[in-house]
Design goal:
With 218 residues, the protein is mainly alpha-helical. It is globular and about 50 Å long. The chain starts with a helix and ends in a 13-residue tail after the last helix.
Length: 218
């Protein structure tokens, strides 16, 4: 059932302390003295973020923290699939900008890992995938009954066909949504915004632009 009224307001109130800690973490990240310190701040912030996400979604979804391989529950399955789609788009964006998607800054480089695409995707995960998952789950457009979990747990939790169709359609609508892009100074789709950010990064690397400006959507 859709989450409305007082229960939803109460869950949002419960998430406020985590939101305050995330704002503090953002300030601390700007002052981090080393990459290791920055990663420590990021790790603590991620735990707060996903715990707050679980409170927003409510007890129906039983989501408490992020787990990936394999995703053990419906929300993790939705997040993992959405992040995979977004990463593929980020790979295409950095390649169009003339960059190597494997050579990143924050994600460690490993064989077969598109580290730079993962770095770029971090800016867009909450805006695209997390926003989408919250909307689908709280509106009742997807339900816990639309998922399957194998008995041995090897493959984890997976969407059934109808839930998959619903998610893919909603994802495409989200990527085509137009919004004002702060750096571009005009409205553009979220998909085009990925390419805009990739080109900006390429300009910084080539010394055509003095500094990289991450997306800061309102």
């Amino acid at each position: 059932m859709p989450a409305t009224g007082r229960p939803r307001r109460r869950r949002l109130d419960e998430a406020e302390p985590a939101a305050d800690r995330l704002l503090a973490a953002r300030k601390s990240a700007h002052l981090a003295a080393s990459e290791a310190a920055l990663m420590g701040i990021e790790g603590a912030a991620a735990r707060d973020y996903f715990a707050a996400l679980g409170r927003i979604l409510g007890p129906t979804w039983s989501f408490t923290h992020r787990r990936r391989r394999p995703p053990p529950d419906p929300v993790n399955a939705l997040l993992s699939f959405g992040y995979t789609l977004l990463t593929r788009e980020a790979v295409a964006a950095v390649e169009r900008a003339g960059l190597d998607p494997a050579v990143g800054y924050l994600h460690e480089m490993h064989r077969g890992r598109p580290s730079l695409a993962l770095d770029l995707g971090e800016e867009f995960r909450p805006l695209i995938v997390d926003h989408l998952v919250i909307g689908l789950c709280t509106s009742g457009k997807v339900t816990p009954g639309g998922f399957m979990t194998d008995d041995d747990g090897v493959k984890g939790c997976r969407m059934d066909r109808e839930t998959l169709r619903t998610f893919l359609a909603a994802y495409e609508r989200r990527m085509l949504t137009a919004a004002h892009h702060p750096s571009a100074g005009r409205r553009t789709s979220y998909r085009n915004a990925l390419s805009w950010q990739a080109r900006q990064l390429a300009d910084v690397i080539a010394d055509r632009t003095p500094a990289y400006t991450p997306t800061a959507w309102r």
